[in-house]
Specification:
single chain; about 375 residues; mainly alpha; two-stranded parallel ribbon; 17 helices; 7 strands; globular
């Protein structure tokens, strides 16, 4: 477990590769973003694309924006409707555990001038899928991530809407290979290798309890369907600099509300507030990769220049990320399992390369924050 020399990400986080100077791929990507990318040119490139699709739209919509109810959704809708004067259709894959605040923020973004489709799966199929994803992949949010992609792509095909405007490019923001960081497109190949899906599409989750028909809502249109619909799928974060704080400030001006009780996890009170399972998804990363949401948020703050590395390290050393007991209880109630079963399952995902047992048989990470 080695940490980046500039931010606080360890190389155990997926996508983080340290270069010969000990600098991580996300920091290299950020430097590229701020120094080498001509953002004015990228914006002009975006305007050209949008103008082309404005002319094409003959169904009442010229693009689709997948929205969840978070700050980025509000920012994306604001930019498309108010700044670029597009006529988007907003689409949501409805999480099982949508929070009242997530709902409120979704209701608010419609006021920016979009129609909104909220697509929800059958509750029993969803519960089985979430359970299976938690037990087999250690990620209760995997069905949500798959649903976001599938309902968005399928809606684009069905409504014949030729452009999908995604938000951030995770490879650009959190680290990835050069070719991934600079790829503005999202296609089937991208989906099966990234996007928090662990390389698995709906077909790979079929078993005796879940048929492909049950899972239809999670299936991605075929390459042929996508090709004949001529859908272009791009990331707004490729064309406009993506910064969570800036997105939040813009979203807040148009009615987005942050958590009234402070951050759910990590540093930001404006993030991770539209679902409770996302909190568990973040918490499991401690077992899998030895990181918490604080590592992600602090690294973003250091890269943006709002925090020094020393300040970030100080927070990590003095502040321990909370154990999300309330969310775990909710999750166990939802799956109808005992809390002890939750912890047993979680134990399967503990990464033994970074976690060791001390003489009292307690787990600890010998290299946690070492050298920071
Ligand atoms: Zn870094």
């Amino acid at each position: 477990m080695e940490y980046c020399k500039r931010c606080v990400q360890p190389d155990t986080r997926p996508g983080i590769i340290l270069n010969y100077e000990g600098v991580c791929s996300a920091c290299v990507g950020h430097e590229e973003k701020t120094k080498r990318i001509d953002w004015k040119a990228r914006r002009r490139e975006l305007e050209l694309i949008l103008n082309k699709f404005k002319a094409k739209g003959d169904t009442g919509y010229d693009c689709i924006i997948p929205v969840s109810g978070g700050k980025d959704s509000t920012y994306q809708v604001y930019m498309m409707t108010q700044v670029f004067k597009m006529r988007p259709l907003a689409v949501t894959y409805r999480y099982a555990d949508r929070t009242p605040l997530g709902q409120k923020n979704l209701d608010n973004l419609r006021k920016l001038g979009v129609d909104h489709i909220d697509i929800a799966p059958k509750p029993e199929v969803e519960r089985k899928f979430i359970r299976k994803a938690f037990i087999e992949a250690g990620d209760p949010c995997l069905p949500d991530h798959l649903g976001i992609f599938s309902v968005t792509l399928r809606t684009a095909v069905n409504y014949k809407i030729p452009l999908i405007m995604w938000g951030e490019n995770p490879q650009l923001e959190y680290g990835g290979k050069d070719e991934e960081r600079n790829n503005p497109y999202l296609d089937r190949k991208w989906l099966s290798s990234h996007g928090c899906l662990q390389g698995k599409l709906a077909e790979d989750w079929v078993d005796k309890d879940l048929s492909l028909k049950d899972l239809f809502i999670y299936t991605i249109p075929s390459d042929e369907e996508l090709a004949s619909a001529r859908i272009q799928s791009i990331f707004l974060g490729y064309y406009l600099q993506w910064d969570p704080l800036q997105n939040y400030e813009i979203a807040k001006k148009v009615g987005f509300e942050e958590s009234p009780d402070g951050p759910k996890m990590g540093l930001y009170d404006f993030a991770d507030l539209d679902s409770t399972n996302i909190i568990i998804h973040h918490y499991i990363k401690l077992h899998k990769f030895g990181i918490t949401r604080l590592h992600d948020n602090i690294s973003v703050e250091i890269r943006s220049g709002r925090m020094t590395r020393e300040e970030g390290v100080e927070i990590l050393k003095s502040k321990e990320e909370r154990v999300p007991t309330y969310e775990i209880q909710q999750f166990c109630d939802y799956l109808n399992i005992k809390e002890s079963e939750f912890w047993e399952q979680l134990e399967k995902f503990r990464n033994k390369d970074i976690w060791k047992k001390d003489t009292d048989s307690n787990w600890y990470m010998p290299n946690y924050l070492k050298g920071l």
